[in-house]
């Protein structure tokens, strides 16, 4: 049990209600909530002085803070975490939101990347935040692979999939490659490639390179290893992070310092340095997860929150994630079911195309 959860269990009904109303008021309008405001909404009739005393106790516990010299309070990061874990009331998905998301996935777009772009735009639109969609790598069964030398330090791997999809990827081969060694490497790979995905082929190659090293010369073995590294995403990024709606974060009445932090966040995302970590966040637990402020290093610079959920393919394997980034005063009760529903939609979309 977290420290925040223990504090919540120890609080009496009055303290719990004051805390909940302060957080809800802050999430609604972004302003500190004062004692006089609460006297009009509390279940029991209590004085402003009594409420101020409760607020002071909650501030001492680290759940509330005073941003200015005014009497109003706002929740701290620990306070927001406690609210999300113990007091958040998640709403039903609204009919308008459901309709907007369903219309996107129901389009006639054949390209998965194009569909995910549209999903990201719809998710950004309905949440008024920035959406992030981690698109899966193309994992259809292979037909064959070819290596083409372009120059002494540049080569092309041509990957032909069983469904007709073709990918051309540039990479730097080990020194000393010749056309014959490349053909030899391709022939070796193609004895195992057909019917396997790239991920499956890489696992097989790891075993076969050791087992059958004597069947190919040292240069060809190096080429195979180099090519596999390219396909596995160590030298490029076959997975794609789609960011939509950044203007929703950059266009509001935000202080210059916060704007710089948010721009830094999007610079990181758009350089795709953190794709693996983004997916790892989603894989750490089932369903929707909420990260507030500095709870994870990926978004700590932005002072923002992330609501994220993984999605699965037809084999129930996590292959990507969808999420919404916004200020820490996100409307969590509304955003959580939207992200959850979007992840389920994307999962069905991926599974349907996988089974065609």
From TrEMBL:
Domain Heat-inducible transcription repressor HrcA C-terminal intervals: 115-336
GO BP of this protein: negative regulation of DNA-templated transcription
GO molecular function, one term: DNA binding
Keywords linked to the UniProt accession: Repressor, Stress response, Transcription, Transcription regulation
InterPro entries tied to this protein: GAF-like_dom_sf, HrcA, HrcA_C, WH-like_DNA-bd_sf, WH_DNA-bd_sf, WHTH_transcript_rep_HrcA_IDD
Any Pfam family the entry gives: HrcA
Membership in a protein family: Belongs to the HrcA family.
Function summary: Negative regulator of class I heat shock genes (grpE-dnaK-dnaJ and groELS operons). Prevents heat-shock induction of these operons.
Protein name: Heat-inducible transcription repressor HrcA
Lineage, opening ranks: Bacteria, Pseudomonadati, Pseudomonadota, Alphaproteobacteria, Rhodobacterales
């Amino acid at each position: 049990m977290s420290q925040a959860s223990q504090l919540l269990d120890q609080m009496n009904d009055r303290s719990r209600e004051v805390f909940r109303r302060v957080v809800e008021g802050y999430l609604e309008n972004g302003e500190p909530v004062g004692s006089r405001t609460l006297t009009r909404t509390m279940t029991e009739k209590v004085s402003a002085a009594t409420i101020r005393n409760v607020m002071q106790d909650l501030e001492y516990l680290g759940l509330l803070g005073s941003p200015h010299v005014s009497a109003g309070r706002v929740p701290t990061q620990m306070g927001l975490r406690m609210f999300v874990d113990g007091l958040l009331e998640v709403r039903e998905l609204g009919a308008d939101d459901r309709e907007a998301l369903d219309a996107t996935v129901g389009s006639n777009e054949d390209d998965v990347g194009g569909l995910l772009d549209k999903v990201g735009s719809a998710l950004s639109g309905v949440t008024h935040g920035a959406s992030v969609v981690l698109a899966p790598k193309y994992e259809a069964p292979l037909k064959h692979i070819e290596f083409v030398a372009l120059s002494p330090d540049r080569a092309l791997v041509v990957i032909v999939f069983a469904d007709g999809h073709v990918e051309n990827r540039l990479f730097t081969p080990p020194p000393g490659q010749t056309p014959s060694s490349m053909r030899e490497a391709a022939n070796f790979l193609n004895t195992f490639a057909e019917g396997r995905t790239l991920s499956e082929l890489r696992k097989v190659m790891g075993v076969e390179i050791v087992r059958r090293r004597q069947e190919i010369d040292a240069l060809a073995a190096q080429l195979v290893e180099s090519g596999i590294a390219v396909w596995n995403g160590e030298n490029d990024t076959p997975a794609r992070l789609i960011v939509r709606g950044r203007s929703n974060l950059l266009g509001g009445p935000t202080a210059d310092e916060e704007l710089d932090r948010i721009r830094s966040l999007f610079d990181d995302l758009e350089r795709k340095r953190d794709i693996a970590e983004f997916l790892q966040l989603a894989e750490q637990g089932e369903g929707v997860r909420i990260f507030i402020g500095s709870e994870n290093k990926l978004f700590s610079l932005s002072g923002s929150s992330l609501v994220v959920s993984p999605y699965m393919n037809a084999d129930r394997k996590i292959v990507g994630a969808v999420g919404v980034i916004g200020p820490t005063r996100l409307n969590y009760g509304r955003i959580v079911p939207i992200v959850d529903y979007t992840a389920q939609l994307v999962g069905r979309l991926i599974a349907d195309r996988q089974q065609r």
